[in-house]
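Hi R.,

Here are the chain sequences for the assembly we discussed:
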Amino acid sequence: MTVRIEQAPFDPGAETNAFLAATRGAGAAVTFTGLVRSLPDDPVATLTLDCYPELAVNQIGRMIAEATERFGLLDATVIHRYGALAAGAPIVQVMTLASHRQAAFAAAEFLMDYLKTDAPFWKKETSPGGDARWVEPHTADAAARARWQSPRDPEARK
Amino acid sequence: MKILYFAWLRERLNKDSEEVTPPPDVETVGDLIGWLRANDEAAELAMANPKIIRAAIDEKLVGHDARIAGAKVVALFPPMTGG
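And here is the predicted structure of the full complex:
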């Protein structure tokens, strides 16, 4: 498993190829790339991510360990950028490797849902006019994460 | 111990870290937030809704009931918005 928290841009295609080059006969690899969104009615010029890198490495490492146990993953890589990103730039890439596609898809969703609510990143949007605001947590993200919770998960008892 | 602040908490307090020595009756993360708010007007306003503040002790995510005895670094931050 690999966790990379970095400011520099990454090349999603090159990362995918490197991941696929080391699959050792596994049947299914899923790649998800998250991009800086900018819509016509809500344009974003710059997305700036604040980050606590040491905690991010620990948290994402725990998420991958849990995904590995739940879904029988053979490998996983999470790359997450921070700093100032332009519209359209890749922010995050999650890659999962499993024997079969169901496990690879489910584990990628699981990892993304947890990244939204439990990895120490904070987004600040700057509009083309220069107005900046911190992004509020979305209730839909909390709901997406909650569907994975089991009774033994201490977070589920909150 | 050192306290780290992130995102809008850092901006509202106008500092990214500080060294503090809480008294012995400040035992948990929740106590620490209460103590910081009681001793600084900016902290009182910045953490006006203390329930939403998340915390980590020595680079591990914890709840407000976590004990701070022996902690080197306590991080306080808003709800996370990654991914």
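Residues 3 and 18 of chain B are 5 Å apart (CA to CA). Helices of chain B lie at 7-13, 29-39, 41-46.

Let me know if anything looks off.

Best,
T.
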